[in-house]
Amino acid sequence: MGHRRTTLYFYGVFLVIAFAVLFTSECSAQISPGDLTYAHAKYEGLSNCTKCHVLGERLSNDNCLNCHGEIKKLQNNNEGYHSSADVKNKNCWKCHSEHNGRDFKIINFYPDKFDHSKAGFVLLGKHSQIKCSDCHQKKYIKQSNLMNRKNTYLGLSSKCVSCHEDYHQNTLGTNCSSCHDYNNFKTAAKFNHDSAKFKLTGAHEKVECDKCHQKEKRNGKDFQVFKGVKFSGCENCHKDIHNGKLGSNCQSCHTVTSFNAVNKGAFDHSKTNFPLLGRHASVKCDDCHKGGIGKKLLFGQCINCHTDYHHGDFTKNGKPADCGQCHSVNGFSPSTFTLEDHGKINFVLTGSHLAVSCRSCHFVQSSWHFKNIGMNCIDCHKNIHGSELTNSFLPDNNCTKCHVTESWKSISFDHNTTKFKLEGKHKDVTCRKCHVTEKNGMTVYVFKSLDARCETCHKDIHMGQFAENGNTNCLRCHYFGNWKPVKFDHNKTKFALEGAHKKIDCSKCHTSEKQNGVAFIKYKLKEFKCAFCHS
Fold first, then answer.
1. Angle, CA 369 vertex, CA 364 and CA 372 arms, to 5°
2. Distance CA 250, CA 256 (A)
3. How many C-beta atoms surround the C-beta of residue 294 within 10 A?
């Protein structure tokens, strides 16, 4: 009996221990359905359950928001995605489920697919073209509890100055959208100057903004002044070119349409120190008063208004000469400088030079020149002979040895002073026949390089039959009077004409042949045997 009781006692103790072990293991599994994610892992354990769960009740959004104060603050301010209709009335665990294991992705957020309008800030203009990371950066987060958080998209403000520097330095308020749109900050597309105290009218509408709104450095940064610009009178922006002589009421003469729109018809220029005479009377006011009507101009010398076409050629002691010596107010051209006046200078006009216009000599390289333009022929005329004439025929490039100013074609040259005297028909031939040729489509003059051989100018109709050492002495048979071979003596050849041969026509022995398609008479015969001609 005692042994039985002892056995039952130990058996009971074993059951209690086993039950305790089983109860602890199974209840733990029922109380915690799974591991928490890494983000909530610190809340593992039975003692931490009430930090998220309410005993005897369901989960509470309040517990979630008490821990995630940044979300609670956004909802209280009705800002951000968690304040949108898609989220605000939902339970947190509908999107952020727990107890699914350590590696479970508790936040399913895909930036590329996110509809930003649900965050309360619609991406318009350039905002729609930039990357998420361009705005969602730590430096733009203002909430201290989010500043050190990694990979967060929370904590940004929708105000422009939260991301963009206030270029106006708080002088125009924070409502940037009253003037700017989302496409381009630099052009205040929504700004209407009519809403300002100074409405733009007339020419003011065409003025660039920075003409009135000056750019400067303020607090070490670029700044453009928009507020506080003075506009009580014209002198606030415009300089009084009259220096107060005409009072401060500019509109008595001028309008905002154009400063130059004045009553010019009533102005008497003869009362000034410069009466308008000659062509000056028909010149428009703006042609002289380019700096503005009423601005004092220099007028003591012509070059104060007119360009010195002579480039200082007529200066004396550093001062320009009186233009009135050659020109008048009735017209700059033609000049009053006469041919007689030209005869008083170092270059007297003679011959054809008298008929040449001034421009032909004095207008060089798009401008007028009068001094130091040259005294020799080649200063104005091209030496068409080049190096073909030696210094003996063209000493110091002095063309007058052969030419005269009356006409370039009037040549007084003695050809007998050369190595080739002109005889017979050569006296009647023009110079161009021998000394002018065409080369590569250009006219070329040859003198020194001209070969004196006959075949240089004349075609060798004998096809080189009488050439000796590459040269043909045509004068053995011909002379300069005509081309006929009057100097030829057949008896001085290897075959003297005797007997009946004297009466035979030349063509009987010297027949016509062809060489390279060219017909010529064969004079140089290889055979003189009788059988060669007589059969």
1. 110
2. 10
3. 18
Q: Measured between alpha carbons, how far is 35 from 41 in angstroms, rounded to an integer?
A: 8
- Nearest alpha carbon to residue 275 among 263, 267, 266, 287: 267
| Two tokens, residue 309 | 């076409």
Residues 435, 450: contact at Cβ < 8 Å? yes
Provide the pLDDT confidence category of residue 199 given band limits of 50, 70 and 90. Answer: very high
**pLDDT at residue 270 greater than cutoff 50:** yes
Which two tokens mark 280? 């000056």
In whole angstroms, what is the distance from residue 74 CA to residue 119 CA? Answer: 10
- Whether the CB-CB separation of 248 and 235 falls below 8 Å is answered with yes
Positive or negative torsion for Cα 221, 222, 227, 233: positive
Q: Which residues contact 285 (CB under 8 A, 6 or more apart)?
A: 264, 293
Any idea what DSSP says for residue 479? B
- What does the alpha-carbon distance between residue 74 and residue 61 come to, in Å, rounded to a whole number? 14
433, 488 contact by CB (below 8 A): no
Instruction: Write down how long the chain is.
Output: 535
pLDDT at 267: 64
Cα 97 off chain centre by? 64
CA distance 434 to 454: 11
Contact 243, 257 (CB under 8 A): no
Neighbours of 92 (CB within 10 A): 20
pLDDT digits (tens, 9 = 90+) for 409-428: 888 888 988 889 999 999 99
The answer to whether the CB of 182 falls within 8 A of the CB of 126 is: yes
Whole-angstrom Cα distance, residue 30 to residue 143? 39
- For the chain, give me the number of helices (H) and strands (E)? 13, 14
pLDDT tens, 24-44?
434 444 567 899 999 899 999
pTM above 0.70, yes or no: no
User: Within 13 Å of residue 104, how many CA atoms lie on the same side as its CB?
Assistant: 15
Cβ 262 vs Cβ 293: under 8 Å: yes
Q: In angstroms, how far is the first alpha carbon of the chain from the final one?
A: 181
CA–CA separation, 454 and 466 (whole Å): 13
Mean pLDDT of 393-404: 86
Name, in order, each residue with C-beta under 8 angstroms of 44's C-beta and a sequence gap of 6 or more.
32, 35, 36
Structure tokens at 359: 């421009």
